[in-house]
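Proteins fold reproducibly. Look at a sample protein:
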Amino acid sequence: MNSITQYAKREFYCAVLLGTVPCALTTYFYGFQETLKALIASNPSTAVFLWSIFLLLLPKGIRSLRMRYIDNNLTHPGFLTQFLEVANEASTSLLGIYRTAAGFAMIFLIPVVVKEQSMQSFGMACYMILFSAGCLVMCCVLSGWKK
């Protein structure tokens, strides 16, 4: 349980660091509508999500196969090691996207509530809280899986 709270804290801090500054700058320089467009655009598509999950699972699968079936005395072990490192590093891009989206959604609550105090604004704020929480859950899952 303690490691779950540690992941959650770390991911929350990363999300705030990665997402709040871009959101604040976009809102300040370009306005509310452009900030809303940026928030919608920051959510990765299904294809990007599935590809990143594949890249996340690929090194673990290759290591598992290598340990079970392939002799460790390969003629080019450096290539396989380098490939695994690159695939593992590439999969971290999805984690960065979710961290940024979570932080962006957190700070986006402020202009939503300040700009217009209505039921629609309240509904949008509730959506932002759920979106941010969902992104943080994905961040915890992805960062926990990498360990």
Summary: Residues 9 and 27 are 26 Å apart (CA to CA). Residues 77-115 form the longest helix (39 residues).
